[in-house]
Amino acid sequence: TTVSVSATASHAIPTSLFGMMFEDISVSAHSGDGGLYGELLQNRAFQQVTPNTTDALSAWTPVGGSSITVIADPSPLSSALPNSLALTIPANSAGQFGFANEGYWGINVQAGTSYTASLYYRVASSIPSGKGSAPPTLTIALQSASGTRLASHSVSLETGGWTHVSAVLTPTRTPASTANLFTVTVSGVPKQGLDVNFAMLSLFPPTFKGRANGMRKDIAETLFEVRPAFFRFPGGNNLEGQTPATRWQWRNTVGPLTERPGRVGDWGYVNTDGLGLLEYLYWCEDMEMEPFMAVWDGYSLDGESVTGAALDPYIAEAIEQIQFVIGDPETSEPAALRASLGRKEPFALKYVEIGNEDFIGNAPGTVASRWNQIVTNLSTTFPQLQFMATSDTGSPVLTPTPQTYDIHVYQTPDWFTTNSFFYDTFARNGMTFFEGEYAAISSNSSNIFGTPDQGRFLWPTVAGSAGEAAFMTGFERNADIVFAASYAPLLGHVNDSQWTPNLVGFDAGNVFKSTSFYVQKLFSLNKGDEYLPSTLPSVNGTLHWSVTRWTSTSELVIKISNIDTSPASLTFVLPFKNVESEGTVQLLTGAATASNTPEEPDLIVPTTGKVKTGETFEYSAPAMSVSVITFGAK
Ligand code: AHR
What we know:
Blueprint: E1 2-4, E2 11-12, E3 20-21, H1 32-36, E4 60-63, E5 67-72, E6 83-89, E7 97-101, E8 115-123, E9 137-143, E10 149-156, E11 163-169, E12 181-187, E13 194-204, H2 217-225, E14 230-233, H3 237-240, E15 263-264, E16 270-271, H4 277-286, E17 290-295, H5 312-326, H6 333-340, E18 351-354, H7 358-361, H8 367-381, E19 386-389, E20 404-411, H9 413-418, E21 432-440, H10 462-477, E22 482-487, E23 491-493, E24 504-506, E25 511-513, H11 515-525, E26 530-531, E27 543-550, E28 555-562, E29 568-573, E30 582-589, E31 607-612, E32 616-621, E33 625-632
Parallel strand pairs: 1-29, 3-14, 14-17, 17-18, 18-19, 19-20, 20-21, 21-22, 23-24
Antiparallel strand pairs: 2-26, 4-7, 5-6, 6-13, 7-12, 8-11, 8-13, 9-10, 9-12, 15-16, 24-25, 26-27, 27-28, 28-33, 29-32, 30-31, 30-33
């Protein structure tokens, strides 16, 4: 195959091209709570649980034969957190009594690392006072699986109302596994017994960039390797709610953690909302990403639509959500709230997504009217913002005409290769596109969303990642209209079986980088800033490429996806006189069905080598591979 490259760029590669999509997803994966969000305790504040049930105690177990129950506290810590854990220690008990939290399938405890533990308690029974009666002692500790205490902090119990205890726990040794416990115990219990209620318990490790209430460092650092240009949040389905009443609501996610009620998320578990709107915005700044923020648009997953006058309060809510992000504290209440939380300056925001997947939400035929009502209102208040539609591009016709559509696709590896030219036929009429979710998730084209035994991938495969790379060369060729794209979902705990595959896997102590992660990273770090047209690949072929260049350094970037089972030979013919004689090739290759897994996390990693380059040069793209060749050419 001969590939002749043009000297003249056809279009710029937008800096926003490769970014990330995030939502709190998957019941046993916990991508936000238990994943990206740094909190180590599961069910820390008994949010949205039914008191006096076993489920309400999820992740908590009694210690020392004590009795624990989640109760609707008659005198709760806050109205947002009505439930407490009631510890009952019977009369005439001696020793340690309390409870333990197992974290999210473990707690990673490392020697020399400082963990911030905190809790609120309220002594619900009386403690005898007077000579000879020392107050009971409350001890917060980290404990290994075998019961060894790794670090602890003790205080004397005080009576009165709710008391806050905060302590830094710094273990001096690293236990053998992450099957550790966070324990809270009481000793020196008076002989008539003791009742103590606990609320809002927390254990935080050091976070990414030291941000308070921030993100888990190893996951964040992995994502930062990709240098994502944008971050789409808070969903995905998790924006929508199973019903309008259970939609994601920004106000419930801001302010002190004790004022956040949490929410029954759309993926079968309670979201603490500790990872709230302000945390998302700081995270975007810390990661140097542009926020792509969604607002609720009157459609929930049960198929309900809210239209007409009934939609107005939700539009007001969306306006307030945006004001919280970019408003002026002098003139806007949500912006004043932001300032009161320590952030006077507005955040940078350009893109606002209207709902999620309205191509499903049009079933009741309400998309056009909802879009018109919402966007007419929002663009009057915020003429500087760009609103993204989530319905099908052609149908129904939306007015005002969307400047941007968010398009999603989950398919087979082959589909992605065959559809590398997906955007080539789109009209050039000013409309732009965000490929907001895409991933090769199954080998079974007639049952894409089926189970693993029906072909669903547990982890990205080499064939899937190479297929995605072929599709991504199409983004670059069409980057005059495709300005952004993100693989989805981003994160999954290795316990996950609800949604697979995910770009990055993790457990309590490890982060696993998939083959698709490496493809995202290769494309993002080597995107170039202008596109050089070249001989077009065969539309239905197995070999796809794109050529871009960094103008400031005259570095040429050639990306090649070969999903054939044999190597493919390419001859590049360049229009430049000064071409370096040697280039660098970054190569990802392996068996079509091979994956990086927790058992073999580094089975397939990119290698870096040298390749002979020149005005004309040949390159053999290995079977089932993604290659990125870079060299100077001007
Ligand atoms: O990424 C998983 C889900 O797929 C998202 O929540 C939704 O937008 C899509 O259907």
